[in-house]
Write a structure and sequence with these properties.
By secondary structure, the protein is α+β, with helices and mostly antiparallel strands. The chain is 37% helix and 6% strand. It has ten helices and four strands, in the order βαβαββαααααααα. A four-stranded mixed beta sheet has the order 2-1-3-4, with helices on both faces. Helix 1 runs antiparallel to helix 7 and helix 7 crosses helix 10. The chain is globular. The two termini are 33 Å apart.
């Protein structure tokens, strides 16, 4: 659910200067029941932006489960030249999505609802039969792919949201979202000093908790890699290049948390995670949010440290 500060709507800022993320408009359910969309290979197209953490975690899950063989992926640019038009398909020939034949992600939202007046967010699933948005539920989309789309998972795919851990995962994911995934945005998009400092403190309180947790646990759920680790990783991997300098989350860099940093390096070396991690896209997106009139993208930091040994 990527956003630019210039695109944050007035209803997303509370009276105390607190950023309140807009709710997802399209939350279609999937399955074989009444009013559910069917699980069919080739039926849907996922629109993403490489710089976006919500998209990144969805692409990791797609790759890990083999769903990229059944759901096509359309990539828009991580830089919005025209903020009103939204994410452009400038990476493709003729600057349009080759399947949907649209110039911007916004176009498919307006084709679905001509009166749609909120931010056209990614990731978003499009039904190729109707050529309309069917789901942009950024928070639940990975769980939907992990649970509802099981009939299309590749053989021996990891169970990233196991039934026996569902309650614990739901609780962990909510905490990680509130304090970290969305916490960096609540810090960076705050419009008052009080709101900024409150969310800054909450963010680093949770990072301190994670540093202690990873001194005793390999993953968030003990020794088992799950959906929760993917959700956490996509924020941590952007932290030092984007959230620390651009969103003023600047008490510590992630590389200064010994246990979190080694956890990050271990996850980064998972093939599906490394393949979908585009550092230049991160920098391009966040450093062109605002107040960068010449569009200069930082050359650093040195990314070779991500390939160093991790000691866990």
């Amino acid at each position: 659910m990527t956003e630019n500060r210039e695109r944050v709507a007035s209803h997303e800022i509370g009276s105390n200067g607190e950023f309140k993320r807009q709710k997802s408009e399209f939350t279609c359910q999937f399955g074989s029941g009444e009013n559910e969309s069917p699980i069919e290979s080739g039926r849907y197209r996922l629109l993403v932006v490489d710089g976006c953490p919500w998209c990144h975690r969805t692409m990791i899950v797609m790759k890990m489960l083999g769903l990229d063989e059944h759901i096509s992926i359309g990539k828009a640019s991580s830089i919005q030249v025209d903020k009103k038009a939204g994410w452009p398909f400038s990476l493709d020939k003729n600057h349009e999505d080759p399947v949907l034949k649209i110039k911007h992600v916004t176009d498919i939202y307006l084709a679905t609802d001509p009166n749609y007046d909120k931010r056209a967010t990614v990731p978003v699933l499009v039904d190729l039969k109707t050529k309309k948005v069917i789901n942009n539920d950024f928070y639940n989309l990975t769980k939907i792919l992990e649970r509802d789309f099981k009939p299309l998972h590749k053989q021996n795919a990891l169970d990233l949201y196991p039934k026996e851990l569902e309650n614990q995962l739901d609780e962990m994911n909510k905490m990680i979202f509130d304090d970290i995934n969305n916490g960096v945005y609540k810090t960076g998009f705050a419009t008052s000093q009080a709101a900024y400092e409150s969310n800054y403190d909450r963010l680093f309180m949770r990072l301190d908790w994670l540093e202690e947790h990873f001194s005793k646990n390999r993953y968030l759920m003990g020794d088992r890699f799950t959906d929760a680790d993917i959700r956490l990783f996509v924020t941590l991997v952007r932290f030092d290049t984007a959230y620390y300098p651009v969103f003023r989350c600047n008490r510590n860099l992630i590389v200064q948390f010994s246990n979190i940093w080694n956890y990050c390096k271990e996850l980064y070396n998972i093939p599906e995670i490394k393949e979908t991690t585009n550092f230049y896209a991160f920098k391009s997106m966040y450093w062109t949010i605002d107040n960068n009139p010449y569009g200069i993208i930082p050359k650093g930091p040195d990314l070779s440290v991500w390939n160093e040994d991790y000691h866990r």
